[in-house]
Design goal:
Main location: cytoplasm
Bound molecules: adenosine-5'-triphosphate, 1-O-pyrophosphono-5-O-phosphono-alpha-D-ribofuranose
CATH architecture of the largest domain: 3-Layer(aba) Sandwich
GO molecular function, one term: ATP phosphoribosyltransferase activity
Order of helices and strands: EHEEHEHEEEHEHEHEEHH
Number of strands: 11
CATH topology of the largest domain: D-Maltodextrin-Binding Protein, domain 2
CATH class of the largest domain: Alpha Beta
Distance between the termini: 33 Å
Radius of gyration: 19 Å
Helix content: 25-40%
Shape: elongated
CATH superfamily of the largest domain: Periplasmic binding protein-like II
Catalytic activity: 1-(5-phospho-beta-D-ribosyl)-ATP + diphosphate = 5-phospho-alpha-D-ribose 1-diphosphate + ATP
Structural class: alpha/beta
InterPro entries: ATP_PRibTrfase_cat, ATP_PRibTrfase_CS, ATP_PRibTrfase_HisG, ATP_PRibTrfase_HisG_short
Pfam families: HisG (PF01634)
Strand order of the largest sheet: 2-3-1-4-11-5
């Protein structure tokens, strides 16, 4: 039995469809929004829906053998997991954004609002810029508007949320996409099953690019 942690929310449906096509179906999983654990013995799989930022925790601690997490989460929390494949979905970028026309005069620590405190700290440390991190859990774009922060470090996809809150990207840190991750012990013990899924998912990705 392969235990698979899927991210609830924007990525979940697409990820499950990819796994289904890879030969790991679980009938009914997309029809029921309340049940969180689904088992389908004929395909030797048990899926469960986790909060996207928790998937890596389930995988690193062995409650899931594999799972799907955004590269943002992997960089922020550095869980002890193997990163097996870039699934090419959930594409966005990590960026610094500020109110239009913002100029950092360097006179005091820069107030940075973010969900990604480690990523932001690393970025500004490499620039030798003192910062005051303001940790938020969502709706980051309103922080500068309300005077809580000078800038934000957050995910940008279309740029619509930034625009609506009168912000603009001032630097792009790195591209982000969803990754297939594996528990390190499970990768040894369930090698064949995991390899099968990696191969099938890679094949699908190649076909999509043809
Ligand atoms: N606007 C976006 N466009 C594309 N991908 C995104 C976007 N926002 C987030 N992602 C990617 O999808 C993953 C899941 O994001 P989602 O918004 O579904 O969860 P979340 O609300 O951030 O998670 P949590 O509630 O666990 O903090 C993120 O880790 C990131 O890799
Ligand atoms: O560039 P865009 O296409 O506008 O997308 C970017 C937005 O999407 C994410 O937020 P999410 O929807 O996950 O809500 P959150 O504020 O709760 O994180 C991200 O944190 C940005 O706010």
């Amino acid at each position: 039995m392969l235990n698979i942690a899927l991210p609830k929310g924007r990525l979940g449906r697409i990820v499950y469809k990819q796994f289904e096509q890879a030969g790991f179906p679980c009938p009914g999983i997309l029809e029921d929004n309340r049940t969180l654990v689904f088992e389908y013995p004929p395909a030797k799989v048990r899926y469960f829906w986790a909060k996207p930022s928790d998937v890596a925790t389930y995988v690193s601690r062995g409650s899931a053998d594999i799972g799907v997490a955004g590269k943002d989460i992997l960089l922020e929390y550095e869980p002890a997991v193997y990163e097996l494949l870039d699934l090419g979905i959930g594409a966005c970028r990590m960026a610094v954004a500020a109110p239009t026309g913002f100029l950092d005069d360097g006179s005091r620590p820069l107030r940075v609002a973010t969900k990604f405190a480690n990523i932001a700290a690393g970025y500004y440390a490499s620039r030798r810029r003192d910062i005051d991190i303001i940790r938020l859990n969502g709706s980051i774009e309103i922080a500068p508007l309300l005077g809580l922060s000078d800038v934000i470090v957050d995910i940008v996809e279309t740029g619509k949320t930034l625009k609506e809150n009168r912000l603009e990207v001032i630097d792009t840190l790195l591209p982000i996409s969803a990754r297939l991750i594996a528990n390190q012990a499970a990768f040894q013990f369930k090698y064949l099953q995991i390899q099968k899924i990696v191969q099938q998912l890679s094949l699908q990705k190649k076909e999509e690019h043809l």
